[in-house]
Structure formats: structure tokens, C-alpha cells
Amino acid sequence: MPEIAEVETVRNVLKKSVLHKRIIGVDIYYDTMIEQDIEEFKKCLINNEFIDIKRIGKWLIFELNNYYLLSHLRMEGKYFIKNTSEEKAKHEHVIIHFEDKTDLRYHDTRKFGRMKIIPKEALYETEEIKKQGLEPGSSKLTGEYLLDKFKGKKEPIKTALLDQTIISGLGNIYANEVLFASNINPMRPANSITLDEAQKIVETSASIIKKAMELGGTTIRSYTSSLGVTGHYQDYLLVHKRENCPCKVCGTPIICIKVGGRSTYLCPKCQK
Asked: Which residue among 67, 85, 202, 269 is least crowded, i.e. fewest CB within 10 A of its CB?
């Protein structure tokens, strides 16, 4: 699943390819992907243009003159830039045609991705955006903030870190890495985390995500930017996908367990 660093990479690459080009047509091949009336969706796009692309958490936000197009990639979503003359691929479900005879094509093998168009003034009142937590690196994301959010939560700290209403943008890969860097066992109840540990989560999440963004995200399995950019943060992963490999700190073999149904990698010696 694309996480915050991967979505940021997609945003940066798309900005170089799709801004300030008149939209002349929209084709929808999987109606469920559009969370509103299809004809209204098309009407808001045609004869308009994208003037910027923003991001909140894992949401891409395409800015039009009077609207925002919200797009979530979910598990397998990818964007492609192609010439209009190119044949449609099997899993291309939304195609936006530009006047210069290029397309922005949304590809999703699982069909989990979602899009909707909203008035600009409604952005922060939209449920999907309103419930987003703070992002790694935000000055408002503090140890005290996390401690307050973890209060009363008996669920594993790994599960709490994946809660987008607490920290926005973290997914399975970076949650594994943050907990390792913070020396915290992912099975620890969230409400057992101390202020010092919460502060460590704040600091490690900021540094890990910053580096991952600089390196174009993590390219493993289903995620590639699909826009000619390959991420390189996978070369810096310390626990994720390293089952049975020696811990780079203490040499103990990395183990993999399931937490909340998610594959969770940890060092049983370093993470307490």
C-alpha cells in the first residue's frame, strides 16, 4: 500500500505532468470508484484544469478553479501518464483526457481506490479530511499529543500507529520501522507508552518519513510510482521484510508476527 512518502512522490511527479492543461474528456470504467454522481463528476472536470496538487495524509488533492478532486490510492492504486492514442490497459478505471492528447490514467488491480469532487470551501469539512490526524514532522505532533491519544487504548501500539486519526500517513512499512527505531515492542498496549517513548515515536517518525520522501519512498511488491520514479528507501529498511536476517543493531534474527492482521517485523531483543 502506498504510504505518506510514496503518495508525496506521486504528487511531486504528477505536478510536472498534468498542471495547466485543459481537460477535454473523462471516461469512467468502474462507477463504484467515484463517490458521487458520475455525470456531475465529469462536469466538474471537463473544460477545467488542475492548477495544483496537494496532499493530506495519504489523500491526493487535485486543485481545480472552484473544486478539489480527492483521490485515495488505497492498496494498489497507481497513476500513469500516457498518450491518448495508447490502448486502454485492463485495470485502468478512470481516464482523464487533456487537450494536448495526453491522459492521466488511474490504474487499480484491486479496485479499492476512491475519488470525489468537492467545493473548495468544503475541504476541511469533508469527513475524509476532517478526521485525519497530525502528520510526522508537524510541530503539533508532540509526545504529549500522542500520550493523550493513547490514553485508555489497550490495543497494541502498532495498531494505534496505523490509526489515521492519530498520525496521518503512516502505514505498515513505516510503523514497523518507527517502532524499531524507538525500541518499542509492537505488541505493547498503547496506553503503556511513556512520555519519553511517545517523544521517541515523534522524533523517529519525522526523521524516517523525511528520509523516505527524499528517496522517493519504498519500492517493494505492489508499490512503484508508475511515473518513471523508483523509490530507494527499501535500501534503508532495518526490519520490514527482513525476517530471519540479523538485526543491524544487535545481531538477533528479525522475526515476523501478525498484529491486527498486519505483518509486523521486529527485533525481539531491541524492542521491549
From this structure: 85
180, 41, 175, 66: which is closest to 116 by C-alpha? 41
- CATH assignment at residue 27: 3.20.190.10
Distance of CA 272 to the CA centre of its chain: 28
Of 249, 262, 258, nearest in space to 183 by CA = 249
Rounded Cα–Cα distance for residues 104 and 173 (Å): 28
Residue 190 DSSP one-character state: G
What region does 108 belong to: left with phi over 0, alpha with psi -120 to 50, or beta?
beta
Which structural domain range is residue 153 located in?
Answer: 143-266
Number of C-beta neighbours around residue 219 at 10 A: 19
Question: Following DSSP, what letter does each residue of 91-129 receive, concatenated?
Answer: TEEEEEEETTSEEEEEE-SS---EEEEEEGGGGGGSHHH
pLDDT at residue number 235: 83
Average pLDDT over residues 137-165: 97
Spatial contact of 73 and 59, defined as CB atoms under 8 Å apart: no
Whole-model pTM: value is 0.89
Which amino acid, one-letter code, is at 230?
A: T
User: Catalytic amino acids?
Assistant: 2-3, 58, 262
Residue 81's SS3 state is: strand
CB 168 within 8 A of CB 56: yes
Q: Are residues 148 and 54 in the same domain?
A: no
Do residues 192 and 220 both lie within one domain?
yes
Domain count, the chain: 2
Given 130, 162, 179, the domain boundary residue is 130
CA distance 98 to 248: 49
Write the burial class of residue 131 (CB in 10 Å: 0-12 exposed, 13-18 middle, 19+ buried). Answer: exposed
Once rounded to an integer, what is the mean pLDDT over residues 133-152?
Answer: 97
* Angle subtended by helix axes 172-181 and 195-214, to nearest 10: 130
